[in-house]
Amino acid sequence: MTMNAGILVLDFGSQVTQLIARRLREVGVYAEILPFHTDSAHIKSLNPKGIILSGSPMSVLDKNAPNAPEIIFKMGVPVLGICYGQQLMCAQLGGKVEAGEAREFGRAELNITASSPLFAGLWGQGEAHQVWMSHGDKVAKLPSGFTPIATSEGAPFAAIADETQQFYGVQFHPEVIHTPDGKKLLEIFAKSLCGARGDWSMASYRDQAIKAIRDQVGEEGKVICGLSGGVDSSVTAVLIHEAIGARLTCVFVDHGLMRKGEAEEVVELFSKHYNIPLVHEDASDLFLSKLENVEDPETKRKIIGGAFIEIFDKAAKKIKGAKFLAQGTLYPDVIESVSVMGDNSVTIKSHHNVGGLPEAMNLELVEPLRALFKDEVRALGRELAMPETLIGRHPFPGPGLAIRIPGAITKMKLNLLREADAVYLDAIRKAGLYNKIWQAFAVLLPVRAVGVMGDARSYDYALALRAVTSTDGMTAETYPFTPQQLTQIATRIVNEVKGINRVTYDITSKPPGTIEWE
Ligand code: XMP
Predict the structure, then answer these.
(1) How confident is the model at residue 336 (pLDDT cuts 50, 70, 90)?
(2) Which residue, among 399, 355, 394, has the nearest Cα to 375 in the 3D structure?
(3) Which of 193, 210, 174 lies closest to 116 in space, CA to CA?
(4) In 16-130, which ranges are continuous DSSP H helix?
(5) With 90 as the cut, is the pLDDT of residue 361 above it?
(6) pLDDT per residue over 431-468, tens digit each?
(7) pLDDT at 296 over 60
(8) Ligand 1 atom nearest to 395, measured from its CA
(9) How remote is the CA of residue 46 from the centroid of ligand 1, in Å?
(10) What whole-number distance in Å separates Cα of residue 353 and Cα of residue 162?
(11) DSSP annotation string for 335-365
(12) CA distances (Å), 315 to each of 229, 250, 279, 292, 422, in order?
């Protein structure tokens, strides 16, 4: 594929590389991310309008520090280095990088010391603006041709430019939201300096994704797609169905950990509405027995992930000739679970659809949503004309209710949680709040509390309610229900769900909490 209207992002393994592409997509510019070690001939053949070098967990001073292919400095297109990318550009073009005395991490003030086409119409000389920094090393000497255009307390060369060659470098991260003008800066680079067009849309993503699926799967390849009832796997299935039609078979592994009524909905929608071949495996008893007495959240995820794949594998063998397994893995799952560079990033949770995959699984993965954030998946679903009730649905984790019952899981607890969760969601819908909330759910606490109902003493379970707002699931704020709304919800739950006599509301944001309790 050539990308002569777009920007090539070379990835050096930063956790936020995908955000660069996302920001460009948001301003309608097509961007493709390739690993730093991509072949020079391939880079040339892509004919990009400009190139961005990402950040990295590595140091330019490391012996095995990854380099950028020399070709990118000879193609006559603008290059923007971000953080490690800036330092690398300096090191490769004859400047000098050294270890800083102190790390500069978090919000920093950027002082604009010169006017530059990179800042045109955005930042003027003498102004100060907030940016986000994350670096230990810093540029100590500029390559010839470069001049500084901004400084910060920890970086004398916080932004640099060689305007003749159109090479630019910034020590800060324009792609993260903590650099409020960062998206504008990337837009200036892409559109004004590189001349990239701004007409890219989700419709183009859909066409590209369909083509990529066809390329990966081939003329005759058969794909199995695991359905979970959630937005991600549903969009994945419909997209693949558009790409290869009846060569897609959906497998719905009913692990018995779904919300109330969801299993039935999945079967109805995919086999009847979309007419996609569907294998329904009811494995709830198997999952429950494997999870018996298991308390540790990571162990739960691994068991569920393992059993999932086992059942898929069995189903796959029944579907003659299927060699591919489709999954609705999203970008936040990818960065929270694995690192582009190997073991440089910290694993926060091993999301079952990424980290829990057994090595031995003999199906090749098809993951068309891997570069997308949740809101982009929804936009893609709308592009595919999928029903709004499904597209607007709150995210639901692969391991389902199992990670909303801290401690050991029993059938009784599952039923209790399922009922309470259904009442909670119904109350939110009736109050017209469902679409204002990113994700709402109940957690059954491993605690029983004393209460009084009528004239009798009760000794029942306590429930925690969670509702958060978020744009991508990576950070989250507690939803600000009014006290009256919370009281009404709590009253309904205690009245309607026998076995729960106390309701609490979780007011922890992410970070420091995570959205799920486990
Ligand atoms: P956390 O709890 O990590 O959740 O803040 C972020 C988002 O990811 C969902 N989540 C999962 N999704 N498998 C999934 O498919 C998992 O193991 C998993 N754990 C968390 C969570 O519901 C939230 O939307």
Answers:
(1) low
(2) 394
(3) 193
(4) 17-26, 40-46, 84-92
(5) no
(6) 999 999 999 999 999 999 999 988 899 999 999 999 99
(7) yes
(8) 24
(9) 36
(10) 44
(11) HHH-BTTBS-S--S---TTTTT--TT--SEE
(12) 18, 10, 8, 24, 30
What are the residues whose beta carbons fall under 8 Å from the beta carbon of 299, sequence distance 6 or more? none
Question: What does 290-323 look like in DSSP terms, one character per residue?
Answer: HTTT---HHHHHHHHHHHHHHHHHHHHHHSTTEE
pTM of the full structure = 0.73
Distance 194 CA to ligand 1 centre (A): 38
Surface-to-core class of residue 90, CB atoms within 10 Å of its CB (0-12 exposed, 13-18 middle, 19+ buried)? buried
For residue 397 and ligand 1, the question of a CB distance below 6 A is answered with: yes
φ, ψ of residue 239 in degrees (nearest 5) = -60, -45
CA of 403 to the centre of ligand 1 (A): 9
Q: What pLDDT is stored for residue 348 in this prediction?
A: 39
| Residue 308 to residue 356: CA distance in whole angstroms | 10
CA distance 347 to 396: 20
In the numeric block, which tokens belong to residue 142? Answer: 């500029």
Phi, psi of 319 (to 5 degrees): -85, 105
350 pLDDT more than 50: no
Query: 275-294 burial, b if ≥16 CB within 10 A, otherwise e?
Result: ebbbbbbebbebbbebbeeb
CA geometry: angle 44, 50, 54, nearest 5 deg: 100
For residue 344, pLDDT beyond 60: no
- pLDDT over threshold 50, residue 115: yes
What are the φ/ψ torsions at residue 356 (nearest 5 degrees)? -90, 5
Q: What is the mean pLDDT of residues 58-80?
A: 95
Query: In the structure, what pLDDT confidence band is assigned to residue 362 with cuts at 50, 70 and 90?
Result: confident
Q: Indicate whether residue 300 lines ligand 1 (CB < 6 A).
A: no
Query: Regarding predicted confidence, which is higher, 335 or 359?
Result: 335
Q: What is the DSSP string of 175-200?
A: TSTTSTTHHHHHHIIIIIIT---S--
